[in-house]
């Protein structure tokens, strides 16, 4: 399901062309290629250690690929190879466990300030930040969109995992990025919080923000996502329409054991097949 149909002539949101990333001297992404068109909500699925977080860091310019030798970068975002990191984050909101740890550490940071600071790509508000009424208005709107308005006034360190995640997504959305990259957004959420959170992601997907969802849980792939990439040991095992990729065979290969996949309406789930 595409977010909207006005992207026909836009460059792809993301193009990765045979990128290799080394960590500890070993290739953890190995000649990895991926294309995500703007508006095409995509899930990146893989087991522990398959390279998902490395991929997020590659896209966020926190890790760099090996130079391919042709002078070109193997990673292009919105058609461009070179980005200033602040500018890139204005177009691509990123929420990951590392971002959440950073915001919920001991330093006192108030929820509303955290969301407004998204306009300045800063961790909190400082004296030199000129906050306009329209910025405040948009921050209130983003918190409302995530069902987190009641948290205004609270300190980040006092929030539950799910509450803090909603605030950080509001912060990532405040300057209206064209896409949102979410790394394991449901980690640490209980059943009810996860369902509510996934419903808010569905609303975002329908509102035109392209979602890139990184997860190891098939049941978090919301119906609006129609492309799935299956990652195994740093390589693309399968990529394509959800129905073609979410099969027992493909997931069995990714997770290294027999997997049973069930479909419930527009949702899928997967479990280890009984021995
Ligand atoms: N700093 C590092 N030095 C050496 N190896 C690393 C480093 N960081 C990650 N790796 C290795 O890279 C591989 C991919 O790790 P990555 O964190 O990207 O996987 P992941 O798919 O996000 O895993 P998980 O689902 O467990 O979070 C793993 O084998 C991991 O041990």
Automatic annotation (TrEMBL):
Establish whether keyword Nucleotide-binding is in the entry.
yes
Q: Name one Pfam family in it.
A: ABC_tran
- The superkingdom of the source organism is Bacteria
**What residue stretches are annotated with the ABC transporter domain?**
14-258
Q: What is this protein called?
A: ABC transporter ATP-binding protein
GO terms of molecular function: ATP binding
Keyword Transport set for record: yes
Alphabetical UniProt keywords: ATP-binding, Nucleotide-binding, Transport
Source organism per UniProt: Rhodanobacter lycopersici
């Amino acid at each position: 399901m595409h977010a909207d149909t006005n992207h026909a002539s836009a460059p792809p949101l993301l193009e990765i062309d045979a990128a290799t990333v080394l960590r500890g001297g070993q290739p953890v992404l190995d000649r990895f290629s991926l294309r995500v068109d703007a508006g095409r909500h995509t899930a990146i699925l893989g087991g522990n250690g398959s390279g998902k977080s490395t991929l997020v860091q590659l896209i966020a310019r926190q890790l760099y690929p090996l130079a391919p030798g042709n002078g070109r970068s193997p990673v292009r975002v919105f058609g461009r190879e070179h980005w200033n990191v602040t500018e890139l984050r204005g177009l691509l909101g990123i929420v990951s466990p590392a971002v959440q740890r950073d915001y919920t550490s001991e330093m006192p940071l108030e929820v509303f300030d955290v969301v407004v600071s998204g306009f300045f790509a800063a961790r909190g508000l400082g004296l030199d930040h000129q906050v306009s009424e329209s910025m405040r208005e948009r921050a209130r709107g983003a918190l409302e969109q995530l069902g987190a308005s009641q948290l205004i006034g609270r300190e980040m360190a006092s929030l539950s995992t799910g509450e803090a995640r909603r605030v950080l997504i509001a912060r990532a959305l405040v300057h209206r990025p064209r896409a949102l990259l979410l790394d394991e957004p449901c980690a640490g959420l209980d059943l009810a919080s996860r369902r509510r959170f996934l419903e808010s992601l569905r609303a975002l997907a329908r509102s035109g923000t392209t979602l890139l969802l990184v997860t190891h849980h098939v049941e978090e792939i919301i119906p609006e996502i129609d492309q799935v990439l299956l990652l195994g040991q740093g390589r693309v095992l399968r990529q394509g329409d959800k129905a073609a990729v979410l099969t027992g065979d493909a997931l069995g290969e990714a997770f290294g054991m027999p997997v049973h996949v069930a479909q419930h309406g527009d949702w899928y789930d997967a479990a280890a097949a009984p021995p």
